[in-house]
Each structure stands twice: as structure tokens, then as C-alpha cells.
Amino acid sequence: MRLASWNLIRELVLTSDIVLEVVDIRDPINTRSTKLEGIVSELNKSLIVVINKSDLVPRNVAESWKKYFNELGLNAVYISARDRLGTRVLRSEINKLKLSKKPLVIAVVGYPKVGKSTLINTLKGRHSASTSTTPGSPGYTKKSRLYRISGGIYLIDTPGLVPPEGDDVELVIRAKPLDEIENVVNVATRLISKILKYNKTAFKDAYGITDVDPYKILEVLALKRGWISKRDREPLIHEAAKTVVRDYLDGKIVFYYTPDMISRN
User: In angstroms, rounded to a whole number, what is the distance separating the alpha carbons of residues 61 and 256?
Assistant: First the structure.
């Protein structure tokens, strides 16, 4: 996982005409970047908030988040990049911007594991054509690649990911590769507590575990998977913690909240 610097993000936005900010529908508040949005506004570029993983929540929840961002003055669509649902609506929203400039360059940005790469691959499609230089910006980072996705419209496929800011557990688990997360057991218990706050049956649904104590959930998961220390026969909580974080990021553990619940928390 390679995180871009804010200078690179600014360069990416400056090079683009439209920026697609991808967020995770399970927690849009903590997976959006107001700093990124500020840069897009400052540079007078067009922004669409792409609320991804909509297959994990009821449709009315997805609609409520679209309305929430619209009321903030932001264009927004909800999609499931993995299932290729809503991408036609996204393309329609891009066309509605009616930017006469050609070539038109689109950048896809977002925190790690929000589905950015899946969306890029969906937009590229099987018939996209790779080119070596971003139109109008030959000095753009050599680690980016440009794809022509339709007549005069290009997509920047860059390895840069928005660097997470803040201490919410959502950002902690996205800031580093799983094996580099410090005290992953503590992080996993915080994540479990957060999930259970909104979905009491999340771990019963995911693992068949009915316990509601975060540490106990890790312990039971380790025992169910046969992760036991050969030295003292204790459950390997560390392995269970990594599994919970990984499964959550992969969309296997589900929770959601709605905009009207924000003020209650």
C-alpha cells in the first residue's frame, strides 16, 4: 500500500478536471476527506462523492447518504463497484457536468480499501486504451498511468492513496498494512465495539459468534479456527484480531448508520 503525500494529491487534482472521491458506505463520515474536498474546491475542480459498497446496506440507507452529501452542496452517487451496480448512474453524472474541455481528465481518489481500484478497473473496462502522458501535463508523476475510457475522456490510474488523518479506528486500520498496525488486538476490539454499536448481530452473521464482549469474540474466533498456542494452549488472539480487521475491510462484516444518527453520537 502506497500513500501519496498531500503535495502529490494536490498535483493529481490540479492535473484533473473531475475528481471522484470514493467513500465506504458503512462509515461515510470517517472515510471522506474534507481536506481533499477543500483542495478540489480551492483549485476550482469538479467533485463527485462516490459512496461505494452500497450492496452492503439497504437502499434507503444509500439514498439517505446521497441526500446528506447533496445537502452539503456536494454531488454524490452511490454504487457497488464490486458488483458493477450504479456505475451507469456515475457515468451519467460525469456527463451532466458538461465540461466542454477536451481532453477531459478524471482522477479517482480515496482512503485505502474503500474500493478505489475496483472502481478504476470498472471505469476502464476491457476496451480502455493506455497512454503514457497525461494531456497537458507531461511532468506528471511517472508512476501514474492514463487510460482513455471514451472519446476525449481519460482516467488517471495513480498508485497514490489519500493519507488518513485522525484517530477514529476506521482511519487507523486504513493507515497501514495489516501486519504493520501497532497493538492490533486493541485496534480490533475498538473496531468490534464500533460495529456492535450499530449491528448487534454482526459477528453472529459473520462467524456464528453470539458473544458481545469484543475480547471474548476474538477468543472464541481463535478457538473456532483452531488458532491455539502450542506452548501454553492459549487462543492466539492476535491472529483473530487480524482476521476481524481484514474481513471488515473486505466487506465481510457489516454495519451501517444513517445521517440522522450522527447528532445522537
Answer: 8
Task: Please name the helix (run of DSSP H) or strand (run of DSSP E) that holds residue 50, with its range, or none.
Answer: strand 46-52
Return averaged pLDDT per consecutive 10 residues of the chain, 265 residues in all: 78 92 95 94 96 97 98 97 92 83 86 88 68 39 70 75 78 88 95 97 97 97 94 93 96 95 67
Its domain, for residue 52, covers: 6-157
Domain membership flag for residue 162:
no
Q: Please count the structural domains in the chain.
A: 2
In angstroms, the CA 214 to CA 192 distance is 6
> Are 116 and 229 part of one and the same domain?
no
Using DSSP bridges, classify how beta strands 75-78 and 46-52 pair: parallel, antiparallel or unpaired: parallel
Q: Which cell goes with 87?
A: 456505475
Q: Is the dihedral of CA 228, 173, 250, 156 positive or negative?
A: negative
